[in-house]
Structures are given as structure tokens and as C-alpha cells.
Amino acid sequence: MAILIIAEKPSVAEDVARVLGANEKNPCYWHGTDIFVTWAIGHLLELQSPEEYDDKYRRWSLEHLPIIPDEFVSKPKSQSSRKKQLKGILTILKKEGIDEIVNVCDAAREGELIFSEIIKHSGTEVNCTRMWLQSMTAAAIQKAYDERRPAAEYSGLRDAAVARAEADWLIGMSGSRAITIRLPNERDRSPYSVGRVQTPTLAILVDRELSHLSHIPEPFWTIKADLISDAASWTATWGRNSGKNPERITTSDELAEIQAALEGEGACEVMESKKERQEYSPLSFDLTTLQRHGSNLWRWSAKYTLDIAQTLYEEYKLITYPRTDSRHLPTDMRDSIDELITELSKQDDYSEHCRRLADDGLTNTARNFNDAKVSDHYAVIPTGNNPPANLPAPARQLYDHITRRFLASFHPHATWLDAKRVATKNEQILTAKASTLEVAGWRAVIPKPNSSPEGWGVLAETPC
């Protein structure tokens, strides 16, 4: 009797095999005492094409639409490498007396589908269980193996993936044929492509481009003025009291009138107000906020950010599962987070911040630990492993920001002092703002400079 573990890709299978002692390498699997670890190469099966359900669909005709099979049927993918791997998995199932099959494909709906396609195609009735990996460290792999659950508990994820695949097929197959038949194609005879996600997403881009093309630019002016008092100097911006884009001047006559008022005779009265503001600590990243962060800071595409995050997760074991939609942590991780911070304190870049947390304690715990806001996976956080010296620069950048965001989430809020100066001359208003950090809080981990302009100084009691 033996256990067969199926991973989604070869690299994950190798990591799992090493931890579980399956050290004998074969072309399609790793082997140990009563344990086999094999892998898929993404999806090994796909849904049949329309003509495989009924030969009449070989001819594209509106009469046949929509195409809705009575029952969807999968078939092995045509690539030789995938066919070979699927055959290898089926061979193990038939010959090796397997009495448990473990799913260690990606812990998400698509991983459930990849595994269930193989099981359904094999026709086996062997008991199936699930290893739910949150990170790729040896400890996490062993824990997931020791705590594997019945596969049936994840049937909802599988059903969601099946629904996604079948919806894609229904819309893609019928929609592509309908559009190709009805729209003229003068360039060539290749078909148009319609997709459940692809087409509405493309429509958003087209609408945006048409909006740009139809935009009629309107010239406008803005006025900035240098103000000087006994102990301060600053630059202020002219603006109205209300309205959309209040700082914009749209006619040359209005511009001349405002300039004349500002440069003419008359006193300039300045009022200053100050107010404290709390800047709340950020939550850790999920995939969407991580991709947005990469785009804003480094102009990375969403795919590039995901690829680097996936490398940090799989190859370097430095972060937890990146394809998560949660920014929170489960309450049962409270003790392990203390241990993680202790491990991170051994890395020079974060030791000071970890010591601060150790001395002062964690804040925002009720917000960070929230079971109701944790979905299949918790937030993207570091694992505590030490980055290797040869870690590529982009990966090091992303790891640093993930780690700092995690540590910042447990620091107190930052306190800023916001100042606003409003100068009035001949009924014209000039405004300037500045912010000074009073209590660093989480900004000690992720610094942000004060926005007080050079020379802001202290406002004199006499008008400028």
C-alpha cells in the first residue's frame, strides 16, 4: 500500500519529495518508502472541441448556435510532454497499489480543477486527500502533509473552477463563431476571438481609447506666487473657493485680471491653521495591492510582479502564497507571528523594527488577525527565511517591500501635523499646505519625507 502525491508542477513536486523522503528520481515521479510524488504540467486535460461532440459542428453556421453539450467531456491535451506525464501518472495508479491520492496542486480553485481532471480521467475510486500549502518552506510542507484533509472538503473550489471552464467554453465557442460569421473580415480568413473575460476587458480598453480620441483639449493657466514674511518664505497656488479644478484659469482676460489684482496695491493678509492627522498603519499585501504597488513604484506589469512573487514563493521560499485575495491573518497564527518576527530580527535590514515590536508589543492585532476576512489564503507575508546573497535585484526589491509592509502593519499609526496657509490680497486667494511628521509610528518602517517646503519657517505675526 502506498500514497501518491500529485503536484501542479515539477519544481513543487521536487520540494515536497525532498521533505517527505521520496529521494529516488524517475522520469515522471519521485519515489520513497510507500510514497510517490508526481506532477502535472498545468492542465493535462482540456474540454473537447465542438466537432468532437457532433460532426455537424465542423461547419460554422448560425443554425448550430448556441452550442451547448449535454455533458462536458475532457480529453488529454495534445502536447507530447503533457500526454507523457498523464500516462506516467495513470501507470502509477494502476501498478503500485496506491490507497491514497494527495492533491498538492496550487491551493486555489484552478489547482483543484487540475487535480480533479486527472482523477476523473483515471476512473479511480481511491481515497483522495488535500495538502493545503500556505508557503513552500520545509516546515510548511511537513505541516500540510501531517494535517491533510479529505478532498471533499474543497469540492466548492473545484465546482467553481469547473463552472469557470465551462462558461469560458460556452461563450468562447459560440461567440467566436457568431462574430466570425456576421462580421466581415477583409484582412484574411482567420476567425475572430470572443472570450468571457477577454471581450469585456478589451471593450474597456476600446472605450477608453475612443474617449481619448474624442477629447477636445482646452487650454488653461495656473498661478503660483512666492510669498515672503519676516521668518518664512513659501510658494502658494491661486484658486477659487469651490468648483471643479478651482486652480484652473480658462481665459486670458481672467488671467490678466487676477495677475493685476495680485501685483497691485493692497495688503496681503495670511492666516495659518494647523491640525493633527492620524495616518493609519497599512495592512499586508494581497496579490492585487502587491501588483498595484509594483506598477506605481517601478512601472512593473501585473504579470511581471506576479512572476517575481511566484519565484519568491516557490524557488526562494521567502514569502507565503502570493495568489491571495486576503490582506488579513487567521487568529490561530498569533503565536507563529511572534516567532516570525523573531526570525526576521536576524536580518540586518529589519532588526531595529523587530526589536521595537518586541519591546513595545504588537498593535492593530484585532484588525490584522481577522478570520472573517481570510479567504482560501491569508495575506502575503515573509516566511522568515534569510534571502540569499545572489537574490536578483527585482526579487530583493519586492521581498523588501513585502517584509516592510508586514512589519509596518503591527506598528502604531503615524501622527502628522498638517499646516495650511491662506493668503488673501484684493479678494484673490493663494493657498499652500505642508505636513510634518510628529510621531513616526509605522513610518519608521516605511519612511515618507515631510512635505514642508524649504524655507516654510514660522509665520510672522505681521502680514507679508
Brief rundown of the structure:
With 464 residues, the chain is an alpha+beta fold.
Number of strands: 14
What is the mean pLDDT? 94
The rounded distance between the terminal residues' Cα atoms is 90 Å
Kindly give the count of domains.
3
Which fold name fills CATH's third level, the topology of the largest domain?
Rossmann fold
Query: Major sheet, described briefly?
Result: 7 strands, mixed
Structural class: alpha+beta
**Which sequence of strands runs across the widest sheet?**
2-3-4-1-7-8-9
How large, in whole angstroms, is the Cα Rg?
Answer: 30 Å
Descriptive notes:
It is flat, with a radius of gyration of 30 Å. It folds into three domains: 161 residues, Rossmann fold; 88 residues, Topoisomerase I, domain 3 (Distorted Sandwich); 122 residues, Topoisomerase I, domain 4, CATH 1.10.290. By secondary structure, the chain is α+β, with helices and mostly antiparallel strands. The model has no long low-confidence stretch (mean pLDDT 94). The strands form three sheets. Strands 2-3-4-1-7-8-9 form a seven-stranded mixed β-sheet, sandwiched between helices. Strands 10-11-14-13-12 form a five-stranded antiparallel β-sheet. The chain is 38% helix and 18% strand. The chain starts with a strand and ends in a 25-residue tail after the last strand. It has 14 helices and 14 strands.
